Amino acid sequence: MQQAATLSAQTAPPPTHELRRGRSSGALGDAIFAAACRSAGVLVLLLLGAIILELFLGGLQAFRTFGPGFVTSTEWDPVQEVFGAGVSIYGTIVTAVLALIMAVPLAFGVAFYLTELAPAWLKRPVGTAVELLAAVPSIIYGMWGFFLIVPFMSTTLQPFIIDTLGTLPVLENLFAGPPFGTGIFTAALILAIMVLPFIAATMRDVFETVPPVYKESAYGLGCTQWEVVRSVVLPYTRVSVVGGIMLGLGRALGETMAVTFVIGNANRISTSLFGPGNTIASVVALEFGESELGSLKLSALLGLGFILFVISFIVLAASRFLLRQRLKA
Amino acid sequence: MSATLHPASGPAKDMRVAAALGRRRRATSHLVKFACYGATAVGLLLLLSILGTLFWNGFAALNLRVFTDMTRPPGSEGGLLNPIIGSLIQTGIGTAIGTPIGLLVGTYLAEYAKNSPLANAVRFVSDILLSAPSILIGLFVYQILVVPFGGFSGWAGSVALAIIVIPIVVRTTEDMLRLLPDTLREAVIGLGAPKWKMITLVCWRAAASGIVTGVLLAVARVAGETAPLLFTSLGNLNWSLSLSAPMSSLPITIFAYAGSPYQDWIALAWAGALIITLGVLGLNIVARSLLRRK
Fold it and tell me: Cβ contact (<8 Å) for A257 and B255?
């Protein structure tokens, strides 16, 4: 009996043993690989949490010292150690919104051209050109803006605007001041050029999700191309178009290098669009080198970073929420 | 004839009104289309203007010395050797750290978690990181690597770039894996292979060109990044290959030189800008053609 048992143990087990080992090594490999994938996913979650936390902790000293007034105060005086975020928050929002006002109509035009007007053989090269415009590093936009656009603004465009629009009653405040070339308006212009390809590419992608039957029906009723886009394509893609614009806004808010080159970097709110200003990102980039470790100024800069992160997070989250339904379908 | 059949229908009642309306509608459409042609032309002209300025100023300043000499004080002829090497090192290490993590996260989203709450959270966070201001990533790395370890370093710069690489690789990896047909997966599992072998040996290989495209696009993106390096690797005008010391990089050098009052430094900044733009746009074109061939 016992012998039989040992005998069967000697003969029968090998295959099951082999089989079990094969299965368990697969299971072990699966477990390790799945765990690696999941922990990488969790790492990304933790990364965002850590970024928010570190920026907040870094800014804590400034938040404590100045309280809620830090966000609204327009004073920035490193000598007196008084820091307020008001001017740079104002500059960040004004340049980004102005940039969108200039970029959105252009982006719509490019998207309309790429989806409806362009002949098939031109669609790809023009689309690629737009995508390349998005790939140019921001420092290049900064240099191009600084050496090409700023001189053009100061010698040609700004004097022209000051002489024409600047003489009208209400507009004269908006376009007052000497034509330096740099300033809020120039920064917004460069930002507009930088976000244009992002918005245009998103618009093109969502325009292409419109079922052709809808458009064909409208054409069949005798609609012109513009009427099809206005009455069929835009209503169908409205939510995603707004999402694409928000994505552009998110990019414009955090843009650093190009803005630093052309905004003029002055810490005051100027009523004129030609006046100098700054943005959160440009202040951080320029003043960081002059702040010592552990100083209140460094804390104020990190606090500015935290505020910028909160603003960008809200805008980007909204953009993603709006874009999700359409592009997933 | 039709006028008597449908006396109330507008167009038939008065052909002139109908013709005028049609003309106006067509004219509006033409006007808008004309504006759209104009917008596209403006976009293309901007790209041409940027490239033209770069070529014009960059080639004038480009010579062999740019690639063989170190950065020198203004007035003495120098090159961009150390920034170029520094950029290559940091971009290389950043990509080497970021790619495996991004690959695993993308695999997790496409093959494991799919639409679970955790996967949706990871996808959301990755998308936020994709568009988050890169200067804030620099500040973050400054806080976690530069302050505790007592100084700016090439490592810190590389880590900052790696954080930018991750979400780009995540996005393309997930998209490419999702394009694969499930029958492929079923065939592999049906042969008795464990899931991890199915993913690594079959799915990754089938999606390889798409994944490589994502990595190339990520390299192109971080190679031109300036803001995250300002507070991490800082820049270094001397020759240094040490990753624990401040390290030079092309974008930072361009930033410093372009803002300087010295003509020879500005010329070098243009040469550097041309090198970087050609590299970045070249990588983009290669990546896109790789994807198209698929």
Answer: yes
pLDDT at B274: 96
Q: Tell me the C-alpha to C-alpha distance, in Å, between residue B148 and each of A8, A264, A316, B27, B145.
A: 64, 34, 31, 67, 6
Dihedral over Cα of B252, B253, B255, B260: its sign: positive
User: What integer pLDDT is reported at residue A328 of this predicted model?
Assistant: 53
The crossing angle, in degrees rounded to 10, of helices A120-135 and B15-61 is: 50
Query: CB within 8 A of A234, min separation 6: which ones?
Result: A241
A182-205 in b/e form (b: 16+ CB < 10 A) is bbbbbbbbbbbbbbbbbbbbbbbb
CB contact under 8 A, A284 and B135: yes
The amino acid sitting at B288 is R
Q: What is the DSSP letter of A180?
A: -
Nearest CB partner across the interface for B32, out of A57, A133, A226: A226
Question: Do residues B166 and A44 touch, judged by C-beta distance below 8 A?
Answer: yes
**Which element (helix H / strand E) includes A83?**
strand A82-83
pLDDT reported for residue A25: 64
| Contact partners, residue B254, CB within 8 Å, separation at least 6 | A139, A143, B226, B269, B272, B273, B276
Measure the CA–CA gap between B211 and A184, rounded to whole angstroms: 40
What is the distance in angstroms between the Cα of B121 and the nearest Cα belonging to chain A? 8
**Tens-place pLDDT, residues B52-110:** 999 999 999 998 988 988 888 888 888 899 999 999 999 999 999 999 999 999 999 99
Q: DSSP character for A82? A: E
Cβ–Cβ contact B27 with A under 8 A: no
3-state secondary structure A202-224: HHHHHHCCCCHHHHHHHHHCCCC
Interface predicted TM-score (ipTM) = 0.91
Q: What is the pTM of this model?
A: 0.91
Q: Which pair of tokens denotes residue A307?
A: 């505020």
- Contact between A33 and B199 under an 8 Å Cβ cutoff? The reply is yes
CA-CA distance, B271 to B254, in Å (whole number)? 9
What is the biggest distance separating any 2 CA atoms in chain B, rounded to whole angstroms? 93
pLDDT in tens, B28-39: 999 999 999 999
Q: What is the CA B252 to chain-centroid distance, rounded?
A: 18
- Each residue of B190-235: pLDDT tens digit? 998 999 999 999 999 999 999 999 999 999 999 999 999 999 998 8
Q: Do A200 and B43 touch (CB under 8 A)?
A: yes
Largest CA distance in chain A: 114
Q: Which two tokens stand for residue A233?
A: 């394509």
CA distance B272 to B278: 10
AA identity, residue A115: T
Distance from the Cα of residue B45 to its chain's centroid? 21
Q: How far apart are CA A279 and CA A270, in angstroms?
A: 13
Fill in the DSSP letter of residue A42. Answer: H
Per-residue pLDDT reduced to its tens digit, A132-153? 999 999 999 999 999 999 999 9
